[in-house]
Design brief:
The structure is a single chain. With 356 residues, the protein is of the alpha+beta class. It has 3 domains: 116 residues, PAS domain (Beta-Lactamase); 83 residues; 146 residues, Heat Shock Protein 90 (2-Layer Sandwich), CATH 3.30.565.10. A hairpin with a 4-residue loop joins strand 1 and strand 2.
């Protein structure tokens, strides 16, 4: 009877490990305790330009042109061999003749019981190209941000130039004296105020970074700009702003800024006729996903005559912006004055707006 000799279990396990390492898609080295190479994957030899015949028995420090002789790597391998560390996602720069390659290393001590000593598995991920692309993307984003800020700055300046031209036309219409001239002057004044308000929004956004905007400073500076352009006597009418620590995206900030602009302009135009004294309060507060923007004046209140309460361009702008933000408008008699609230809440009820 013929007996077939079987290989020891330890040899079978080692041969299986060597086969797995050889076929590994990721670059892998199997090292002994002296940091000599037991086996290497073909992906390693291909990725790092090492001849397969130079692998068996070679010391890691002598591999290639000596680029793997890195004190940091040697220390990590020895610490792992002694069981003092387990290395996961350790970053290392490898200096080669073709330049620096950025690597991420995993080092594991294998449970090896066949008496041949320590075995270390070194897995390597080359992220050089990925990091280079990320840097390029960051540079493109920064360049785009600079261009957007420049466009915002130029837009604000252009709007102010247009507003100045309208102001000159308004003064010429005032000098005409006729009813038609005064009617034209009123339209020019409205156009001037609206352009100045949009310019103010642009200026505030241009001064902030792209992305999230801190609303307290943004709305405070915006209302100050509107007041400077429309209030001739700041001892007669004042605009006061109260905002919590909320932060909003640039897109939401633009919409909120335009809503505040329209409501404040509306109050300045209609709430204080005949040099009436008063104040306008702008308040914003948020609680989770819900927020409320309120603009209140202590002026003459909601007009009684239907013709005086006809909605104008400003009401349409506010309604469109509120809908865009998923919010509703609530108009109330503040006694004295008018309170307009823009409310965004998952549980809110839809209320039809009536902006004067």
């Amino acid at each position: 009877m013929t007996m077939t000799s079987l290989a020891p279990p330890s040899d079978i396990a080692l041969n299986l490990a060597l086969s797995l390492i050889s076929a590994s898609v990721a670059p892998v080295l199997l090292l002994d305790g002296a940091l000599s190479i037991v086996a290497a994957s073909q992906s390693f030899t291909d990725a790092f330009d090492v001849a397969p015949e130079d692998i068996p028995g070679a010391h890691l420090a002598d591999l290639g042109r000596g680029e793997w002789n890195v004190p940091k790597l040697r220390s990590l391998l020895k610490a792992t061999a002694r069981g003092q560390a387990s290395i996961r996602a350790c970053e290392m720069d490898l200096k080669t003749s073709d330049g620096t390659r950025h690597l991420i290393l995993d080092i594991q001590r294998l449970d090896h019981r066949n008496g041949d000593g320590v075995r270390l598995l070194l897995s390597i991920q080359d992220v050089t190209e990925a990091r280079a692309k990320a840097r390029q993307n960051d540079e493109l984003i920064q360049e785009k941000a600079m261009l957007v800020r420049e466009v915002q700055h130029r837009t604000a300046n252009s709007l102010q130039i247009i507003a100045s031209v309208l102001l000159q036309g308004m003064r010429q219409a005032d000098e005409g004296g006729s009813c038609a001239h005064h009617h034209s002057c009123a339209h020019l004044r409205d156009a001037h105020h609206r352009i100045m308000s949009v310019a103010a929004v642009q200026h505030q956004l241009a001064r902030s970074e792209l992305g999230d905007v801190e609303l307290r400073g943004y709305l405070t500076d915006l209302c100050r700009s509107i007041g400077d352009s429309m209030i001739r006597d700041d001892t007669r009418v004042s605009v006061n702003v109260t905002v919590d620590d909320s932060i909003a995206t640039s897109g939401t900030s633009v919409s909120l800024g335009l809503i505040v602009t329209e409501l404040v302009i509306n109050a300045l135009k209609h709430a204080f006729p005949n040099d009436r004294h008063g104040r306008i309060d702008v308040d914003y507060s948020a609680d989770g996903d819900s927020w409320t923007l309120t603009v209140r004046d202590d002026g003459v209140g909601i007009p009684v005559e239907p013709n005086d309460a006809r909605p104008g361009l400003g009401s349409g702008i506010v309604q469109a912006l509120a809908s865009q933000l998923g919010a509703v408008i609530d108009i109330a008699d503040a006694r004295p004055g008018v309170r307009v609230s823009i409310v965004c809440s998952p549980l809110q009820l839809r209320i039809q707006p009536h902006v004067s």
